[in-house]
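Handout, section 4.2: multi-component inputs.
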Amino acid sequence: MRDEQSQDSVASGDRELESLLRLPEMWAAVPTDLKERCLAVNRAPGSDLENVVPFGRPRSLRHRAARSRRRLVVLVAAAAAIVVGATGLVTTLTQPDAQTFALSGTELATGAKARAELRDTPSGVEITLRTSGLDGAAPGTYYEAWVKGAKGLVPIGTFHLRGESDRVVLWSGVDMAAYPAMTVTVQPEGGGAASSGRVVLSGAVPPGKR
Amino acid sequence: MAEQFYGEPTLAERFRDGDSSALSEMYGKYSAPMFVIALKLLGRRDLASDAVQRAFVQAWQAADRFDVSRELQPWLYAITRRAAIDVFRRERRAADTLPLEPEQLDRVVSVEDVTMEETWRIWQVRRALDELPADERDVLRLAYHEGMSQSEVAQHLGIALGTVKSRTARAQRHLAEKLAHLREDVPL
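Output:
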């Protein structure tokens, strides 16, 4: 039972402040993974991020180049990390052994979106991607899908979408529980195996469904 | 609070200059109020996390244009609020095509009803709470968040009722000192 007299003595007399202190959000704990997501720069390997085109950021002056490179790595790493909590993360179990989640277009493909369906098979994770609003890759480029987790980035297939179909089947040889984030990048042909960092779609398996 | 020596760059200056340690320090200082106002606006922890992360990216993106003569907090606050509204709009668009549960949708439709003044006050109060000594913050949390009476707080913490009362009074006094400017201080 509430000790009314003692409870009264808690009151500071500032009703507005007290109402703020009683807001449930006021005492919310910050999610433990948020720091890593926000500060991804400090642990970013960087090597495959150097060629990334930033989100419309103008090129810096020469004397700022080093600083800008550092900031670019921060931005790209953080943008990649956004994938972990990325947009519209709605999972529905469409089949007993499959789950789907949404991917959203980034600033490089604002009208694009996709749904990914995951299915565990004896050979690996089959990932069926159904895109909409994503143009076919421009000549000289292609799309590449990736999954990402604490251990790094793993490519799961390339495609171009220049035909009639918006359906792509990809395969992951790693456990999605350990690599919950998924991105699609646009890659230049002949540009090497590393990610260009030019992410056009991003999403993630919601935490409760991994 | 870290001591600032003459000639040593401030947090804002280090942030403007692209020092990644400044980003880490900013996270330590401001992530909680950022998260709290995003949560107030969006109602879901996952969306609030998205908003805070977006805010950090946007802040870092704009860092070299930050005017260090200005206060960092109102600037970060404005970015966070904007990021939360961006997330809200994104969710509203997504709701047209994604099978959001009705209760999820209900939680993200009220963002524009929360005033800038209210969220700024919430930011300031959370910052002030984070600056209190842990024992003082705890008694306030148990009283206001958990709804405990003084006696219950004493029992919960295993300390004397008199100690709870004096600690609470001290906490309230410290909080009031930190928030003395609150009534007039609305950014933007």
